[in-house]
Every structure is written in C-alpha cells, then in structure tokens.
Amino acid sequence: MNSVGAPAGPKRTRIARCVAIIFVLAASALFAVPARAAGAGRAECSAVRSKILGRSVPYCILLPPSYDADKTRRFPVLYFLHGLHENAQILLNSGGWDLIQDLWSQRRIGQFLIVTPSAGDSFYINSLNGRDDYQSFFIREFMPYIEHRYRVVAGRRARSIGGVSMGGYGALRFALLYPRLFAAVTAHSPALIDEPGARLSEPVAAELTQFVGTAFGSPFDRAYWVRESPFTIVKTHPRPVGLRIYFDCGREDSFGFDRGAEKFHQLLDSRGIPNEFHLYPGGHDWAYFAQHLPASLEFQSRAFGLRP
Q1: Domains along the chain with CATH numbers
Q2: Which has the least CB within 10 A, 54, 109, 226, 260?
Q3: Does this model's pTM top 0.85?
C-alpha cells in the first residue's frame, strides 16, 4: 500500500500519529485486469443515480462463470466495500479479480456475485453535516437497485457484506446495525479504534479532517466518531442473532488497528456474540489483504450454504 505524503518535520509526525489513531488507507493497484478466458466470470462496471446523494455512484460487479451460461439461475450476493482513497475498481485494479477467478476455477468457493460501490471518504456513514448520507443511500437505494438489476436470490440468507480497511469498518457497521439484512460479515484490517483519545486539540482535529475528509465533521468531531463506531453499536444494540462474523488483522498494522481488532473481539465475546477472529503476521497493505482474502471468501461461501 502506498502511503500518503506529508510534510517533513514535526507536522509530519503529528499527522502520522493522528492517522495511527483514526484511519486507514486502501490497497494500491498492482496488476492489470486479465483478458476473459472461456468459462470464466465477467466483470461489469456501471453507475446508479442516487436521489439521496444527488449524484451518480459508480460500482463494479463480478459475475460468476454460470451467470451468463444459465440465464434462469439466481445467485447470492456479497457487497464488498473498499478502503479510503480507493474506488469501485479495487478488485479489478489490485489483482483481486485474478484471485477470485482462481478460487472459482479451483472450486474453493461457490458462485456468488461480488459488488463494490464507490464510497469516496464517506466511511459508509451518514455525514455529520447531513450533506452526504451514504449509509441511507447504500441501504435504501443501492442494495435494492443491485438486487433488481441482477439475478440475486431474495432474502437475508443470500446476502452478505465484507470489506478491507475503511471498508471493513463500514461492513461491520452495516451488519451490526442491520443484522436482519445480512447472513455474514467479513473484514480485513478494519479501522477499529476503541477510544480515539479523550480530547483532540484544534490543530490535530483540523489535520484529521484534511486527511480523512468531512464525514465526521469539519473539524473532526471525536464524539461523532464514537457514536458511529462499531464498538458503540455492539454496546447499545440488541445482540445480532444468526449473524456470522469473521475478521482479521496484521500484528504489524501501521495504524494500530490490531489493538482495536483485539478489543473488538473481546467485546463481542463478552456480549456472547459468536465471531471468528485472527491476528496474523503482516502489515496494512495489499500483500496482507491478498493473502487472507481467500479465507474470508470461503467463509462467505459457507455462510451462503454453497458447495464449490
């Protein structure tokens, strides 16, 4: 993963410290999209017009090999959320598409749709200023559009969500807020921070806003971060019955999300919420994500009840 540039000297140190407190970068592009082979799946990119957001939102969808071969068949769907500074093409531009094709051809996962919408720096929440209600768009417009536009099996048992980094944060939030909508959730290196400091100085808050955007206010509003946090959702909402949860993180995560992930696992255990959690060697980069993405996709396939 490429890091974002920062000025040299004390300011750079402050920014690095802030980022370690709050936030995550997405994987950078490493590989070209391969030509489609016979019997392989197909990638399609388009956009949906949102009345809630007042703009068009790009998305990409990966269609499994049987989608075009059997026009009567319907498939489960996995909503896959990208990280900060990435977009809908994260799986196409990162080598993830090759990896998924291999999993299908090796019959390690069953066939399901994988769809990624662009989310900018929204953190998949409704922004504090009310100008970017991404959460409302995703639940009320995007999912219904996808499940009408494509041949998707209806109902919770055939719908799941996952993501990396900021997308892992978003996936956990959606699944815990709307457990009746999703069968399972998976997250790699999710941006989990239990308590981002008792108080942030005005300069630090301003720097955070410049880096992560305005979803949590301008300047950054710590109280809103806490309110929207997956930690708070677990503490204040009913236990999510039947939701299957998988998440992992690298022990050398450059933003300290390994500590947040461990605390989140402990919180879930304390509330009697079943979960599968792993700490592995590795940092916060595409090499780590690519190494462990097959495990989460296999987890999703099992949650769908699919046989490869």
Answers
A1: 10-303 (3.40.50.1820)
A2: 54
A3: yes
